[in-house]
Amino acid sequence: MSDGIRWIGEHSLQEPNWNIPGMLSGISLTAARGIDAKGLLTCLGADPRQLDEGHLYKDRRSAPLPDEVEDLDFAMYATYGDWVYVLENWEMATWRLHHSEELPMTALSGVEIVCVSLNLHDPPPYILHATPDGHIASVEYGNDTGRGSELDAALHAAGAVYPSVLDTPEDEVHLYWEQHRKELLPAVFSAVGNYCGLSIDQTEAESGNLPLAVIPSLF
Asked: For residue 1, what pLDDT band results from cuts at 50, 70 and 90?
């Protein structure tokens, strides 16, 4: 089954099924162009040697892990067209943590990144868009980035921008998210998929048939 990436949003709020070999619910997405998969994942903390071993996500329990890192997160990744994408289902996207903690990311200079971080531990979710010139916009679901960009146009076209968000008092944002999350999640992922021209096969992701990346936990 392949239908862009809308399916990620449709399954975002389902209870996780840890018995499946891959991912279905609670997925955050980081997509980048202007860099290869190893380059992006190394920036996120993955060991290039682990990436070279070629393990699939479904084999993560038997894959050798680095002894020097105590807390690890598992991700799956692949390329589609010009984009490298990383899928994570441990509450949020690692790249958002790197950005928010202002860790050195000089290797990503000149790279475009679109990140959809669910922030399940502390909603609402965020969309982040880093342009090749290094400017980063970070907005809650329901908003566009305010740049008038092609990504903003895709968000509007998919119904992922709600004008009333702009008038919502800060202390009511969480209530707004609770009211609209079932509509916003699929719309946001549809918009990002359309902007990136990105399609991820749901069956492949659920089966864990994508490459494994082991990333040190920052959370």
From this structure: very low
Strands across the sheet containing 136-140: 136-140, 126-130, 112-117, 28-33, 83-88, 72-80, 212-216
Query: pLDDT tens digits, residue range 54-110?
Result: 999 999 988 887 766 668 999 999 999 999 999 999 989 999 876 554 444 555 789
- pTM for the whole structure: 0.90
